[in-house]
Every structure is written in structure tokens, then in C-alpha cells.
Amino acid sequence: LRAQLAALRPHLAAQLSCGELELALADLEELGARCENAGVSAEVLQALDEAMALEADVALEVEGDAAAMAEVLACAGDYLAIFRHTSLASTQYEAGLEADADCLGAQLGRAKCAAEQLGARRREGGNDDQLEASEVAAVSAALRCGLLLVSQVCTT
Questions:
Q1: What SS3 class is residue 136?
Q2: pLDDT of 138-150, one tens digit each?
Q3: Which residues contact 92 (CB under 8 A, 6 or more apart)?
């Protein structure tokens, strides 16, 4: 897993500007630790690489309880998001939230995807209805994430 993640550095360097690259490499490092803790295998990352190459959703078969499944799917979403495949990442976050609505990683990922999609709509100059829908989705995702975080902090 670590070797596969290390091999991704040149791909990121070719795609991103210097500032973006530093952030993406930090995200990749943090993701590596999360993947190891969640039990994400190199085979899962290879399946995600294939999905990115084909621009196709991938259905990951994950074993374990709902919380463990959600964390693996959140890691998968984060992996896809690092490479700017927000639509594919969003699918993984949604699947993670279906498994466990209290998965903070999936909630955070969904909020980041919604914000990224809002930014893209603003850059594209979409119509007012599309822009408003994206704004509502981004704010709603951020609020859900904040509420979940507060509830988790209050219960510990």
C-alpha cells in the first residue's frame, strides 16, 4: 500500500501547480495512514485507478461492520478526490454514508465535493438555478458535517 501511494507522487506532480501539489502530497500522506488503519488494500487502490482511467464508478466490495465499511469507502472517496475526480469520489462518500450515516470521513468528503462542485459551477457561469442548488448542497453538507462533529464531541 505504501509503495503504491509513493508511486503516485510523480503523477500528482505532473498534474498540479506547486501550491496544489504540496497540499495534495500532504493529503496523500494522511490518507496513507487512514488507509492502513481502515484496512484498505493495494487492490482497492488499483480498482480506483482503473475507475479513474475509465471515468466510471466502481462498486467496492467491503467486508466488516457498517462503521468499517464506511471508513473504507470514505478513504476511497478521498483517494479519488486527491486526483480531482469529485464525481467518482462523491459516489464513494454516498455509499459510505449509506453504510454508516455517522462516518465523519464520508461526511467531510461529501462537504468537500459539494464545495468543489460549487466552485466549478461558479467558474463555468452556470445559470442561477444551478448555482443556487449547488450553494444549498454545499452549505447543507457543511452543516451536516458540523452537526455530526459536535454530536461526536458531546458524546465522548
A1: helix
A2: 777 777 767 777 8
A3: 60, 73, 74, 76, 77, 80, 106, 109
The 8-class DSSP code of residue 110 comes to: H
pLDDT interval class at 14 (50, 70, 90) = confident
Cα–Cα distance for residue pair 68/57, rounded to 1 Å: 21
Residues 95-127 have pLDDT tens digits of: 999 999 999 999 999 988 888 888 887 888 867
69, 92, 66, 68: which is closest to 79 by C-alpha?
92
On the question of pLDDT at 19 being above 70, the answer is: no
Cell of residue 91, nine digits = 459516489
Q: Measured on CA atoms in the order 28, 30, 36, 37, is the torsion positive or negative?
A: negative
Cα–Cα distance measured from residue 69 to residue 97, given in angstroms and rounded to the nearest whole number: 10
C-alpha cell at 5: 501511494
